[in-house]
Task: inverse folding
């Protein structure tokens, strides 16, 4: 019998958890038709704003709205204190780890991380060996995926360090909620999140090369057909900086310039939303039409900062994830505040034997996968799907890790029949600059189908506003 999921709103005895006390009173006095009307208004607002995303490989084509739920996820001040300290601690250690693996590799010499997991990893960029970015910062922006288990414990599920997405939905969710339910914000001491863009800009400016007294920062996007293009444009607008594509930039005399109607303007920091391979056709994929020829050499010379740094993928690889608690102790001399989910490495003979025997009970993921693609959720899979996945594992065991099927916490969610529990996770967004900080909130993703554990928007999940109470 699987454990009963932790209910974010209701105690096992039926009482209401304190963070939801005022909200429960309100929702019990509010007719369902009002919530249904607000839900429809939210859809209209999101369409008007243009908050859409594309799904690669979607036969229907076009763009979709991410479904938005009008019932907030509410986190107490005490809970948030644990979460915020835990994710910041984790990002500090991951920055130290990335510096180490591209320099002295002390953690490998100490045997705390297997050498082969780093040196033979496709995300390890030999071109970055010996290079140090300004302020030793490789990861300025991180999204750390958090789940709450049946035991009411927060665990880290994944680290997203390359080009983490979703913060625009966090901000727009809050904007829509304040328009739809202003009376709720009068009742609840909800911490603000609308200062995120200003903090992001300060973080990017802090990471500029030393020669840049008044750094010019840009957002580099692959273009309007990218699934997260709305977010790229949104963040550039919120920060008051230019959104550029590869053809808008060029390298001359070792420096990066942006084409403008007033002539070339030197660029000091690039918040890039393009994967490593496509950044520079002279250094990486020669067929890339998205990048800037000569950009990597300008980066290596210290003329420009890339955020996040090239090569950060080595630290959010799912095979590396299991070793992050050890990194925290190794680099920071501290005990991890947040625990990992137990993880099996399928290149290990004993782990692989156990996983193959228990595929119907586990979640199996590709080590480089994201967005819920390439994943097996054993309890929800058919016999044929499990058999096919077994063949994939046997063909390349090192490409997979496995984890227990967690009883993710549930949050009341508005569905056709009214309010019903649905599984959720949380992605707080961490900024590492002069200090490491996280805005009080994050992107709560919700699995809208009953009993589903897949919260990814690309797999049919939705989002909620996340309220962190200030008292």
Result:
């Amino acid at each position: 019998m699987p454990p009963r999921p932790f209910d974010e709103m209701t105690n096992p005895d039926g009482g209401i958890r304190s963070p939801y006390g005022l909200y429960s009173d309100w929702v019990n006095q509010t007719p369902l038709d009002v919530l249904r009307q607000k839900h429809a208004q939210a859809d209209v607002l999101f369409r008007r704003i243009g908050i859409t995303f594309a799904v690669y490989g979607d036969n229907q084509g076009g763009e979709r709205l991410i479904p938005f739920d009008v019932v907030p996820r509410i986190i107490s001040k005490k809970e948030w204190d644990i979460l915020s300290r835990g994710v910041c601690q984790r990002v500090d250690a991951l920055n130290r780890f990335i510096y180490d693996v591209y320099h002295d590799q002390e953690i490998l010499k100490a045997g705390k991380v297997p050498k082969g997991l780093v040196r033979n990893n496709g995300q390890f960029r030999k071109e970055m060996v010996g290079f140090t970015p300004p302020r030793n910062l490789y990861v300025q922006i991180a999204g750390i995926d958090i789940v709450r288990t049946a035991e009411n414990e927060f665990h880290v599920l994944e680290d997203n360090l390359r080009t983490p997405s979703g913060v625009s939905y966090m901000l727009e969710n809050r904007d829509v909620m304040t328009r739809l339910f202003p009376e709720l914000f009068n009742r609840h001491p909800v911490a603000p999140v609308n200062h995120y863009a200003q903090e992001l800009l300060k973080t990017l400016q802090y990471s500029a090369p030393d020669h840049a007294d008044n750094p010019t920062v840009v957002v580099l996007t692959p273009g309007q057909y990218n699934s997260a293009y709305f977010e790229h444009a949104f963040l550039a607008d919120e920060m008051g900086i230019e959104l550029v594509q590869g053809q808008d930039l060029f390298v001359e005399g070792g420096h990066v310039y942006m084409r403008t109607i007033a002539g070339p303007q030197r660029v000091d920091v690039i918040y890039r939303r393009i994967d490593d391979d496509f950044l520079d056709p002279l250094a990486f994929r020669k067929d890339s039409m998205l990048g800037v020829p000569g950009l990597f050499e300008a980066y290596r010379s210290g003329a420009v900062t890339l955020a996040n740094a090239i090569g950060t993928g080595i630290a959010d690889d799912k095979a590396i994830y299991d070793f992050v608690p050890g990194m925290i102790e190794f680099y920071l001399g501290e005990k991890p505040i947040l625990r990992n989910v137990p993880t099996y490495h399928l290149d290990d003979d004993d782990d692989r034997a156990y996983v193959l025997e228990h595929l119907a009970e586990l979640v199996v993921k590709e080590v480089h996968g994201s967005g819920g693609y390439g994943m097996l959720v054993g309890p929800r899979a058919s016999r044929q799907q499990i058999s096919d996945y077994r063949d994939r594992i046997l063909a390349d065991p090192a490409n997979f890790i496995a984890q227990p099927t967690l009883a993710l916490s549930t949050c009341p969610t508005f569905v056709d029949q009214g309010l019903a529990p649905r599984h959720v996770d949380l992605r707080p967004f961490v900024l590492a600059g002069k200090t490491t900080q996280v805005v009080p909130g994050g992107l709560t993703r919700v699995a809208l189908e009953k009993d589903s554990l897949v919260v990814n928007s690309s797999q049919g999940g939705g989002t909620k506003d996340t309220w962190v109470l200030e008292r």
